[in-house]
Amino acid sequence: MLHLQRANYGSPEHVRRFGGVQVSTTPYTGGDALPWHEHDEAYLCLVAAGGYIQQSADQDIACELGLLLTHPQGHRHTNRFGPNGARCISIFFADEPSGAVRRLLGDYRQLRLPGADRLLARIESELRATDDAASLALQSAVLELTAIACRASDANRRPAWLQRVLQRLHDDPSATLSLLELAALAGVHPSHLARSFQQAQGVSVGEYQRQLRIELARKALGDRQRSIAEVAAAAGFSDQSHFARVFRRVTGQTPRDYRQQLQSAS
Predict the structure, then answer these.
(1) Minimal CB count within 10 Å: which of 81, 171, 208, 254?
(2) Cα dihedral sign, 200-202-207-211
(3) Domain tally, the chain
């Protein structure tokens, strides 16, 4: 594992500094791969050209033109560049950034921002410029990009009550829960809960609970003494046919086929 400070692999084409902020642009050759590494300082990475796959923990992210990635301090990752290579703009901040920037850099995330193409073109142009106004113009573009990212990040931040709702769903996936009950637990209006849950989890509350129930059923199907109807009922499904339809939609297999696969594997 390699540790980097305000630096990147490769040879930067341009490096500018202003007010505790460092901005650089670095090209990468097609087909190259970077080893696992982490930066000792949080930073932003804006994909300026080409693309690559970034692996972090067990997650692979396709990083394409215009995507802004936030890397918190010590974020461990590796990159595999596509055949056309890539060019990335890195933005490092002072040791004690403002509250909004500190929140932005607190988590690893990928952001598609409105106006990113326009700001990307401005940043690259000012990095190449040599007149005495270039630093001021670059600072303006970088700070505008950062402000937009901060607002987008705050808008997408997981609400504080979400963990309570998730915990309730995980405690008993087979329970019959209403949106009103979950909203009362969260302390928000039911419509706000439904909308915010969808934004945070990518699925509705009902679909999330169905997925939990299917996971419960998958474990239960390993018990050969229990019938499929019993497994369906224990998982909270009203009838076996409904259970079979949902199970197949989620797993791609019928409950019977899944059970046979488990038996063959054992």
Answers:
(1) 171
(2) negative
(3) 2
